Amino acid sequence: MTYAVIRLRGKHDLRRDVEDTLKMLHLTRQNHCVIVPQDPTYTGMLKVVKDFVTWGEVDEQTLAKALLRRGRAVGDKPIDDAFVKSHSQYKSVWDLSQAVAKGEARIKDVTDLRPVLRLHPPVKGLRAVKRGFNDGGDLGYRGKAINQLIERMLFEAGAKDAQ
What we know:
2 domains, two-stranded antiparallel sheet, 163 residues, 3-methyladenine DNA Glycosylase II, Chain A, domain 3, 7 strands, CATH 3.30.1390.20, alpha+beta
């Protein structure tokens, strides 16, 4: 399994260990998303930054959609199936997203692919960025509900396929 981690809170007044952990996760700004494997190292890192991020298990469809819309190559160029085929062993973005979601591959297996997905703020906003997900807020572990949040953050103003 693989986690999608999204930073929800800003940069002001961070403890040193929290700031360092966010840098190691490549979460330097709000609404940045990274895909990390579900292992003890990353789980420990997520516990350190639980008051600034939300995370959960991402599924193949949401990951493929996020990579196609917001995935960028070095030089801020959009990615597509041809890019993935020429820079990795996978034939398409869908094949890559299936392998990553199952935990068989990582995003860094594709050379020249940026590790961060820069998402838009979510449509209809967030509930509260100072409370945990189970307490009526948005922070911390949210399980499969991360997929709905990512879908809301992929919406682009002016697109007709939104809710």
